[in-house]
Amino acid sequence: MKPRLQTSLGQHLVLTPQLRQALHLLQLPIPELEAEITAAVESNPLLEWDESSPLSASAEDAPGGDEQRADTDSAAADHDWDDQRDVAWDDRGRGGGGGDGDPDGDASERIAQSETLRGHLSWQLNLSHLSPRELAIGEALVDAIDDDGYLREPLSAIAEAMAPELQCDEAEINAVLQRVQRLDPTGVGARDLGECLLLQLEALPADTPGHALAKHAVATLIERIAKLGAPGLADALHCSEDEANAALQLIRSLDPRPGSSIGGMPHDTYVVPDCSISRHNGIWKVSLAGGRHASLTIHRGYEQMLQHTVGADAGYLRGRLQEARWLLKNLAARGETLLKVVHCLVREQSGFLEFGAQALRPLTLREVAAQIGMHESTVSRAVARKHVHTPRGTIPLRAFFASGIDTGGGGEASSIAIQDMIRRLVDAEDPRKPLSDARLAERLKDSGVPVARRTVAKYREALNIPSSHERVRIA
User: What gap in Å lies between CA 187 and CA 195, rounded to an integer?
Assistant: First the structure.
């Protein structure tokens, strides 16, 4: 065997800084996004707010084109989307979906509770294709995950906590844990730092620069990586310093506390809708939220200065110009992705918008991802912590998703619709003889929705409805 050089052509998907920024921007709700944009404008002289033309920024410079709209006629079989580009980013943190002077834009509707990590994971778990037994184990695992995203409890302790209602061994719990570890954010459910980083590395393409060495380093040298540096890592892994440096850079780009990215919003906070859904002449219209006072653009003075600048100053300005273009491009991609997701939600859940929760049909992240040609994790990021202004008030985008339960007629009813049915039955009951969980289950079965008594109890508790004994009222 003789050493030899060989060249080859191939396509590789690399997690570049631009891609990392795009993923980061996608998961930010409007207030955090505008704070990020404001910070970028303050640190980059090539970015500025164009006060003179808030709604006429060019396609190259506007973050998402101009405001993008989509219309769909819920009564028609074919959905005719009327796309117009019109988005501007307000530097003062505004961006209501209802527009100025919206009579339906009551501030009280925009008060929202903080989304917790457990709630975010439980929501995804309920949209997964799990059996009732697996779902119960998954919920127990989610409850044991701390705010940083780690599972600190041993599997044996979780098994003991579920007994005697549910008897299961560690192998069965571990199988469900692997499903939980595939939820967003990537790396959640890990039992230590090494496993957390490995989960994030396994989610990256195998041909990412430094990928194989990074996995080997995390698996065998996790306690020493910080002290070794690139030269020490090269010696330990028997590779070149350049290869070790690529692996080290990849490891440093990972998040050691993945759970901290969820649930940062304080309690009882006003939310700013990321988009708006309204109905005009029988047609549902969807638009991205955007301020009308300022738009983000490239500073033309500095851009023209590049033509006459040389040396270090030219290098600095070129770098800032490239960063500005990346930001504008990624903001455009964020808007387009969000619109695709909301378009799909309106198509699938027009009944929910028109008639309320009882018309909400089962819909999962996987179904939406398949329809718009994206990965489930991308849809999850697009939906997380984002709200939409609708004729029914300002609601989280995740409210459009619901797990399904088989009905007697061969179809499915969403869990949200069933909860709404339970609430209606309780509201209409005789206060002197309230319906027990078993009676509620019978009523639902008579309506074509066979649900077990324990499922009714679970939904009743989720609705904060007391038991039948506590609801007794003497007239």
Answer: 8
